[in-house]
Specification:
The chain is α/β, with parallel strands linked by helices and 399 residues long. It has one domain: Glycosidases (TIM Barrel, Alpha-Beta Barrel). Helix content is 40%, strand content 17%.
Length: 399
């Protein structure tokens, strides 16, 4: 017996995501560029030219549109737009506006992320998010993006994965290099408070630019699964690392759900995945069901705020495993929709094989990028997933 195809709702966002620093190249004024050239041990290689998408974004959008995708999530770079405090580059604002116009011309709805992990060096040097006036400085930057986002941008993401920003700040204060084998470091409480304040201020600023823009942010969902008897431990572990950020989105137009794998929690905290578990190039457990758990948990916490899957994917050099993973993930999305959860779209990570914060080795992309010529080549997974953008249907499953 085979099941009929699953049809996604009309207007469902069907796309792929990228982040500026990971694909543009030569983002020399950002804090991450400085980290990449500082000899930090967890940075295996610098981003350098990355995918040269600063110049080749038309090729990227051409491919996505030709493949059948209807949406493209990309970020704009604060370090380029405000290279010195209070100096806003008209040239860079025009550059990112051309990207918005280019997406619209190709039939791609743009979702613009205002902050995706990187900040200007001057912002970091004055103390980053916990320095006095940081929220006001971020708000000033958001207000300055008006020429980019004011017209034709239906979705704006203020801050990508704020919980990971707080976790990284906590790890830095503790002097940790790298993450434990299971679970996440403790988030920095001050950074958590400030980043939530920055988000709420940014939402107001975006609404001031154009009240019709749908504004939200994205949260990294670790899919915490309690082993028998560890329910209270799991809830206590999850709240500062995830739920407090989901709760902060209750007044937003939408919230982005980003998930890749799961984290199992026992009586003593996180436990590693089984030794025989299939793992991806990031060493995460291969677990396509993660996105379904993440959607259901987010809906439970946030209430009636619409959800968008803004990142979901797999780092692998075996594209058939990518298709298998995405098939399992999309069935989870379809199941959640059938149960009445308000899900507005699915954007996979990522459009391109890109710079994954220290290394080019983990290949998440639907599109391969030659590191020398920068030639783009759509993988079979890109053709398969893009075709669903035209039909809005997930093929039926066999028995």
């Amino acid at each position: 017996m085979t099941h009929a195809p699953t049809r996604f709702p009309d207007g469902f966002l069907w796309g792929a995501a990228t982040a500026a620093h990971q694909i543009e190249g030569n983002n020399t004024n950002s804090d991450w560029w400085q980290k990449e050239h500082s000899g930090t041990s967890h940075v295996q290689e610098p981003s350098l030219d990355a995918c040269d998408s600063y110049h080749r974004w038309p090729e990227d959008m051409d491919l996505l549109a030709e493949l059948g995708f209807t949406d493209y999530r990309f970020s704009i770079e604060w370090a380029r737009i405000e290279p010195a405090p209070g100096h806003f580059s008209r040239a860079e604002l025009a550059h990112y506006r051309r990207m918005v116009d280019g997406a619209i011309e190709r039939g791609l709805r743009p979702m613009v992320t205002l902050h995706h992990f990187t900040v200007p060096r001057w912002f970091e040097e004055r103390g980053g998010w916990t320095a006095e006036g940081a929220v006001d400085l971020f708000t000033r930057y958001v207000e300055a993006t008006a020429p980019v986002i004011a017209d034709g941008v239906p979705y704006v993401c203020t801050i990508n994965e704020p919980n990971m920003i707080a976790v990284m700040a906590g790890a830095a204060k503790a002097g940790d290099i790298g993450f434990p084998p299971a679970g996440l470091p403790t988030p920095d409480e001050e950074t958590t408070r400030v980043i939530i304040d920055a988000h709420h201020a940014a939402v107001k600023a975006v609404k001031g630019i154009n009240s019709a823009i749908n504004v939200g942010w994205t949260v990294a969902n670790q899919v915490y699964q309690a082993l028998p008897g560890a329910e209270e431990v799991t809830a206590a572990y999850r709240h500062p690392r995830e739920d407090v950020f989901i709760e902060a989105a209750r007044g937003d137009d939408w919230i982005g759900v980003q998930s890749y794998t799961r984290t199992r929690i026992g009586a003593d905290g996180p436990i590693p995945a089984p030794e025989d578990a299939e793992r991806t190039l990031t060493a995460w457990e291969y677990y396509p069901a993660a996105v379904g758990h993440a959607l259901r948990h987010t809906a439970e916490v946030v209430g009636d705020v619409p959800l968008v899957v803004t990142e979901n994917g797999i780092a692998t050099d075996d594209d058939s495993r990518r298709v298998a993973y995405l098939t399992g993930a999309l069935r989870e999305v379809a199941s959640a929709l059938e149960d009445g959860i308000d899900i507005r779209g699915y954007l996979t990570w990522s459009a391109l094989d890109n710079y994954e914060w220290g290394s080019f080795r983990p290949t998440f992309g639907l599109i391969a990028v030659d590191p020398v010529t920068f030639a783009r080549t759509a993988k079979p997974s890109a053709v398969w997933l893009g075709a669903m953008g035209r039909t809005q249907e997930l093929p039926g499953a066999g028995s």
